[in-house]
Structure formats: structure tokens, C-alpha cells
Amino acid sequence: MATAPKRSTRAKKPNASKEELIEFYREMLLIRRFEEKAGQLYGMGLIGGFCHLYIGQEAVVVGLEASTKDGDQRITTYRDHGHMLACGMDPKGVMAELTGRKDGLSKGKGGSMHMFSKEKEFYGGHGIVGANVPLGAGLAFANKYRGNDNVAFTYFGDGAANQGQVYETYNMAELWMLPVIFVIENNQYAMGTSTKRSTKSPSLYVRGEAYGIPGEQVDGMDVLAVKAAGQKAVDHCRAGKGPYILEVMTYRYRGHSMSDPAKYRTREEVQKVRDERDPINHVRDILLTGKHATEEDLKALDKEIKGIVNEAAQFAQDSPEPALEELYTDIYA
Amino acid sequence: MATNILMPALSPTMEEGTLAKWLVKEGDAVESGMILAEIETDKATMEFEAVDEGVLGKILVAEGTENVKVNEAIAVLLEDGEDASAVPAGGPAPTPVSAATAEPSAQPTPAAPPAAVATVTPEPDVPAGTRFKQQTVREALRDAMAEEMRRDGDVFLMGEEVAEYQGAYKISQGLLDEFGEKRVIDTPITEHGFAGIGVGAAFAGLRPIVEFMTFNFAMQAIDQIINSAAKTLYMSGGQMGSPIVFRGPNGAAARVGAQHSQDYAAWYAQIPGLKVIQPYSAADAKGLLKSAIRDNNPVICLENEILYGKSFEVPELDDFTVPLGKAKIWREGTDLTIVSFGIGMTYALEAAEALASEGISAEVVDLRSLRPMDTQTVINSVMKTNRCITVEEGWPVCSIGNHISAVLMQQAFDYLDAPVINLTGKDVPMPYAANLEKLALVTTAEVIEAAKAVTYR
Ligand SMILES: Cc1ncc(C[n+]2csc(CCOP(=O)(O)OP(=O)(O)O)c2C)c(N)n1
Ligand SMILES: [Mg+2]
Hints:
Chain A is an alpha/beta fold. Chain A has one domain (about 5-315): Rossmann fold, CATH 3.40.50.970. Chain A has helices at about 20-45, 60-65, 80-85, 90-100, 130-145, 165-175, 195-200, 225-240, 265-275, 280-290, 295-320, and strands at about 5, 75, 120-125, 150-155, 180-185, 190, 195, 215-220, 245-250. A seven-stranded parallel sheet of chain A has the order 1-8-9-5-4-2-3, with helices on both faces. In chain A, strands 6-7 form a two-stranded antiparallel ribbon. In chain A, strand 8 (about 215-220), helix 8 (about 225-240) and strand 9 form a beta-alpha-beta unit. The model of chain A has no long low-confidence stretch (mean pLDDT about 95). By secondary structure, chain B is an alpha/beta fold. Chain B is built from 13 helices and 22 strands. In chain B, the strands form five sheets. Chain B has a seven-stranded mixed sheet with strand order 11-10-12-13-15-14-20, sandwiched between helices. In chain B, strands 17-19-18-21-22 form a five-stranded mixed sheet, with helices on both faces. In chain B, helix 1 packs parallel to helix 7, helix 3 (about 190-205) packs parallel to helix 4 and helix 10 packs across helix 11. At the A-B interface, helix 1 of A face strand 5 and helix 12 of B. Bound molecules: thiamine diphosphate and magnesium ion.
């Protein structure tokens, strides 16, 4: 049976090597710069429709990816750019999908919310809130069926956590001991609705208890804490002990999507998180105070990442629109 | 090097906006993430954040300026140490846009029908001498709900972001203020749950209006709509029904991809026990929604995001209603009948206008209600014109147009001089790419071509 859910706190001592710290820094910064660029291209009309940025939440996916191994799967919502970059998908292909071009990961047919990679075991990119949760358990079902020890990372939001199909899935996942980690990215808002206004049981990590699923709340602005919690959850799943819930406390700095007037929270609230809890600055401080890197090292890294992002943006603008015949391809296998 | 800060697009449908307020002044240091200005879009006032760092060299567009086009330079950003006096008047030369971006396909939002309003036949549902005011579909829907909520204390509105956020598409603007949180209720994201709660409340005699943020999300709730709302009156031998309205935007918006761009008109129109309306104009949106709220049956009100911002004449009457199940003739003609509804009317009316200039006289029928459907008005029209085409955005297989064709074949076969042509969206999921999305939707050019085909021109 499951252990009682609990909260874990901000890691006091880095549980990571210098190399790993620098890698975390690099990956989080890549996501941040990529998203800033995407926001800019949206403003120029080069990206259309919905575009949900991951800025502020970078530590969640970067920390969890640290415990994955080959064959592990991941699936998430429409807020998916960070997940794709963190699992090694090509920034150029992601950006070109955002601009709806031929070289995008879905040939321009999916857009910001719908990208996939068989190679990286990334199963999307889903627009219907809650719907990817049973899908993630289905990926885990396949692992169990095949008898491997892979784990399916299933990401969803605090708002999605209220959908009924999440609880249907919890029940079956524990009943059948499926190796799935339910990662609730609690950024405290579902569009304009704060968790306080959508539920009277705001601790989402305890919601698996009734089904026997252990859960844990993690500081999602601390990539090291996320890594530690992720490793524990992964060990649990790989050992055949069934699903695990991680409620990762995070924050989105930008609007829900590009057209969010953001009247539901104050500018000060956002600024306070940026100033005090920023996940990238957190690692930056550890790197500098631990003398793992100098200001110059980090500047050089920043420049390198800006280069990657600019190259992706240029690629995404130069790539042509998909051929008109593509309208009718890929409808049936 | 100095760069231009450009007017951003802040929503999927924005083409221009008002630069409401500058929050920085010339000479200020700019950091990425800093809020530079407040910009009013078609839907809301938004904050515009800086991406690049530097110093604000020059403001090119003063605050308060309206109709600033997306991508117009609004300020100049200097690199640290650069001198503002180096900036030529009007800012640096615009950065060249790559060939691919210059393609006109970026914003597929269809234009409002140009001269359509002028050729409208008078609204038969209003008394002579009625005054009209210009209103958007968005405002008309809001007024319909507000009027019915004032009239009947059992009417309430429930859905995601309908109260404090004022509606994801700003349809419920002001309703929370007027009616309070007892009657304007924000729900968690739990469509199946709150649709069922709505139906249960309707069983108990209340009159819920359930807003789906879009009808794509009503798929989560489809069981309660069909199995609970539509069938209970029948199953209870007439004892108990569900006077409920399910409403929200339906169909494609702009560039929101396969899971967010679906037209459910034909789906709902198939279900006995449901009534289905899909208004085009603001007046019909208001009049039909008011009737729907008063109706004792479950009514599906299919709206359209692109139409929300369009303005039409709405009668200034204390209690203007449009009966469910009655089509409207927008334009009289003699050579062919164009049958459409909802946003399809945009193409139908545009095409009729263009055809008129080529000497082809099209009669345009707006079904308005899809269930019950006023097929008699269509038949009467076809008996006069002998030709018919239908226009809708939904998929071609088992479409509304297919149904009209079958009705005409069975009831007006001898009057047809050409096979009926159904114009629909293409038989594909909606692609994201701008060029493909445009191709997936029905176009005015296709309507014109079909009109010429059935009239053998
Ligand atoms: C079934 C469904 N209902 C409503 C929506 C509209 N919608 C998109 S995102 C969203 C908020 C989700 O919030 P949360 O789960 O907290 O994720 P976050 O956006 O914060 O990452 C809503 C209501 C949707 N896409 N699908
Ligand atoms: Mg959230």
C-alpha cells in the first residue's frame, strides 16, 4: 500500500554535480529564451492562434527529465514547448511548427498545441484539458503489458486536476499498478481561475490517497528539489509499485495564452515571484556562490543560447508553408 | 544597433489596436519582461512586455492613438550607450521581413459582408417604424441573457470564466455585477459535471444557461447533453423535461488547430429532443437566444467567434424575440437559392453580391434554426428559382446541406433544374498552417463557382 502523501521542501544542499548544475541552467535558459522569442514572433503575426508560454515553469520539466531513461514516455497539454525542448527535440522544428511551416515537427499541421515525436517518446501536445491524463496511463499500460520498466510522465495543470477523467484514471492506474507519474504542474491558475476559486481541497497531491496512490508536493521553482522528488517517483514506478503523484508548485509569468488581459492577479504578485523565486536565478546563484562558474562563463552560455534561439527563429521564418497537398495527407494510416 | 519595437498582435483575431498607455518614457532602461505599454485589442486591454533589452530611444506612436496596425513601429530601442539623436525621424528602417511572412495568408479572418446590409429584406418579426441600433453579436447575446435574467429569477448562467473574467470571449460582460454570484457562476474545468448539474437543475424547474468556452469542450459533456437533456421528456412520458440552453462558440476561429476548430451543427441537429439554433446576425442572436431561454426544451445555441465582433442592426424593442424554427430570407432573387446559416452566411451574402454584378440573381435563405428546420421556406424558394446550393463550414459527410438536398429531392424534385450542390468545409481535420487552413474552409469563390454551375453560366 501507498505511503501517506507529504510535502518536500526546497533543497538545502545541491544534490547535483557542477556539470549537472550547468546543464540544468542551460536547459532552463534555452526554454526561457525560446519562449520569449516565440512571444515576439506571435506579436509580429508570424505565429497565430493560441500560444501558451512556459516561462516561469522551466524547473518542472528540466528537473523531471533528469530521472528519465531511454524508452520513458512523456505526454502533456497545450503548454508544451518546454517539454519538447527538455526531452531533446530540435528547437528549429518546434519553432517552425509554431510558424506553421513545412519543416515544423507536424509539417505545420499541428501548431503550438499539437506536436509529437516518436523518436523522443513525446506523445503531444493535447488541447483538451484533462484528456491527456488517461492517455498517459495508457502509455504506462503498454509498458506493463510489454514487461519493461519504463515510466510514463503525464503532465497536466491544476485546472485539469478537476476533470472527472483524471479520477477515473487514478482508480485504474492503481488498480492495475501502472508505471505512470502524474505530474500536476500547479501554477495556481487555470486561465483566470485561481485554485482557491476552483476547489476547496487545494492540496492536489493528496487526491490520489483515496485510490491508494502516494503523492508529494514539490517546490517547482527549485530544479534540484524537483529532481529529487522525480527520482523517488521514478524508482517507485520502476520497482513495479504502481503510479505516483507529484504536485509541483510553480508559477507562470505570462498570460494564459497570448490574449489574456490578466486582471485576475496583480502585477506585484508576478514581480514578487520573478524577484524571489525565479528557477533560473536560483541555479545561477548556486553556480556563482559555489564558484562553479563565473559571470563571464554564464554570459557566454547566454550568448550561445540566444544564438540557438535566433537560428531557430530564422529557420522558422525561412521554411516555406506546407505544400497544399498536405491538406489531405495523414488523415488515415 | 537601434531596433524598432513593433505593434504586437495580442490575440488570434487582432489586426489593429489602440495604444492606450505608455508605461515607460524615452530614456528609460528596458529589461526583458518589463511592461512597456497597455494595448487595447478587440477583446481586452493587454499589457505589452519587452523582449529585448536596451534603452527606450524614441516613442513613435503617442499614447491614445487608435487603429495602430499590427507590426507598425511604435518605438525605437537603443542598445546601451547608443545616442537617441542618431535615430532618424520615423525610426530606423524596418527590418526586412522574409519572403514567407509577406504572404497574405497570415490572417484568414473573413471580411464583413460589404453591401449585404443594404440589400436585406425588412425584418418581418418587428413592427413598422421600429428603430434600430448598431450592435455586435457579442453585445446582443449579452443583452439577451441580461433581459431574460431580469424577467425570470430562475434563469442563471454557469460556465468556465463566465463571472469574474467576464467570459473567455467577453460574452457575459457585466452580468456578474448586475446579477451577483448566485446567478452568474464560475465553474471548475469540469464540463461533464457542470452540464449534468445544469440538466439536473432544469429537471427541478430552474432555467440554466450553460456556457461552454467553446463547443469543442462540450464533447466532454456530450453524454449529459444527449442522454440526459435530450431524452428525459420522452422517457418520462412527458412528465419531466429540461428547459436548458447550452451555448458557446462553435466552428473554426483562426489558426487554433484541429482540436479547437470544429463545427458541430450537423451533430446536434441529428438529435430528437434537442433544438438547435445557429444565428448569423446580432438581431437573430438576440431574438433567438431569448426564445431559447424561454423554451421548455434543451436548446443548443451555436455561436461563432469570428462573428462575435461583427456589428448589425438590432431592433430597439423592449422584448424582441425571434421564433425558433423559422428561416429568414436575407435577399430575394430569382435565379438560384443559396441556403446557409451562421458564419456560412458571410460567404453566401458576399457571393450573392458578386453574382448580382454579373447579372445572376440569388435568393439567400438563412436557416437560423437547424432543428426544427424551416425546410418549407427553402422549398418555396426553390419552387421559384429551381436551383439550390448550400453553404456551411462543417464537414461534407452527413452535413446539413446533405439533409436539405434530400428534402428537396423528396419534396421538390420536379422543380429542380440542376443537382443541388453542397459547399462545406473540406473533409479533413483543421490544419494549423495559414495556407492550409484557408484551403480547408469554404470560400466565397467556391460559392460563386457553384452558383454558376447550377445556373449553367
Ligand atoms: C475540456 C476543456 N475545457 C476548457 C478548455 C479551455 N482551456 C484551455 S486551458 C484552460 C485552463 C487550464 O488550466 P490548467 O489546467 O491549470 O493548466 P495551465 O494552463 O495553467 O497550464 C482552459 C479552461 C479546454 N482546452 N478543454
Ligand atoms: Mg494552471
